[in-house]
Design goal:
single chain; mainly alpha; two-stranded antiparallel ribbon; two-stranded antiparallel sheet; 5% strand; Rhopdopsin 7-helix transmembrane proteins; GPCR-Ligand_Int; 331 residues
Length: 331
């Protein structure tokens, strides 16, 4: 009786996963590709890219998101929809897929952290800190950081193997423990970093609003007034602060569930579990993974919904590319 009940439960959960792949994950994949390409087109505009180094971080973040979507997202969709899953039959595919997903995901989180740190530096009242946002430093961080991450994540193809028709960390008990800790770290550390610097950004912005400038009115009379006008550069900085905070919120919203599940999975790894419980946990894990893909697909749409300036820039960019397309291919 219990065996039959477990079988039915597992079948039902697998059916739900299939429907989620078809009606949820496929749209996420398509819209995510469109949105990240749109972000790259927008942030690559000379008036944005040339003046604000943070734009380069947004471009690199979008590239990392595309990498994750088209290595992990696409293969997950194919495995769920048409049962095309080389991960359980090819050891090369098993190792390379997980290595590429992990590398892309960690690089994306690295750039989210850089975005939050750079925006804190720009809003700082300390001139020395503001001067640290230079093109040379940004270029080094863009080149060296991903290379170091790619080298660090090399443990994944070493430790992953196919066992019981599953591709997972199974080299030995020591590596399983290491991978669980690593998996929690690559989520909790970015969350801590971006939370801390978000608070610091809010603090800096609040201080800047109360900053006053003395101006001469008549003779020796000096009056302090609030700054009421901002240069175009300052307005662009404010826009990027808003986009950074939106990106931080989006990341935390859609990845926190996966982090919580990993903590739970690690804490209960030594407990003997029934087949029903294993099926339910596998289902919850699948939901958390799907939400992870939302986190790399959603930025463009969250920026568009929350920022009027971003929407205007999008319209201008699409119009520019549309005009260029018509000139090239129109009659």
């Amino acid at each position: 009786m219990n065996s039959s009940s477990s079988s039915v439960s597992t079948t039902d959960l697998n059916l739900i996963q299939l429907k989620l792949a078809r009606y949820f994950l496929v749209p996420v994949y398509i819209l995510g590709n469109f949105g990240n390409f749109a972000n790259i087109a927008l942030f690559s505009q000379r008036n944005i890219r040339g003046n604000i180094f943070c734009a380069w971080y947004f471009i690199c973040l979008s590239l990392a998101n595309l990498f994750v979507l088209n290595t992990g997202g696409l293969s997950r969709i194919l495995s769920l929809l048409i049962n095309f899953n080389l991960e359980t039959t090819s050891i090369i595919f098993c190792k390379s897929r997980n290595y590429l997903i992990q590398t892309g995901a960690v690089i994306g989180r690295y750039f989210i952290c850089l975005i939050s740190i750079e925006r804190w530096m720009v809003t700082s009242t300390n001139e020395m800190i503001r001067r640290m946002t230079s093109a040379q430093i940004a270029l080094r961080l863009i080149v060296i950081g991903p290379c170091m991450i790619a080298l660090f994540v090399i443990h994944v193809p070493i430790g992953f193997a196919i066992s019981n028709e599953r591709c997972f960390a199974s080299l030995n008990d020591t590596y399983v423990l290491f991978f669980n800790i690593y998996n929690m770290t690559i989520i909790t550390v970015p969350v801590i970093v971006i939370t801390l610097f978000s608070i610091l950004i809010f603090t800096n912005v609040r201080q800047s609003r109360h900053r006053v400038v003395p101006i001469s009115i008549t003779g020796s009379n000096v009056q302090a007034i609030y700054l009421t006008t901002k240069s175009a550069g300052q307005q662009r900085d404010i826009q990027f602060i808003r986009l950074a905070l939106i990106q931080i919120f989006t990341f935390m919203l859609f990845t926190i569930g996966y982090g919580i599940y990993n903590v739970y999975d690690f804490g209960t790894s030594s407990i003997e579990k029934s087949s029903d419980r294993q099926a339910i946990e596998a289902f919850i894990s699948g939901i958390a993974v799907n939400l992870n893909y939302v986190s790399v697909a959603a930025p463009f749409f969250s920026y568009t919904l929350a920022s009027n300036k971003f929407r205007k820039d999008c319209i201008a960019t699409f119009h520019r590319y549309g005009t260029l397309f018509m000139r090239c291919f129109g009659e």
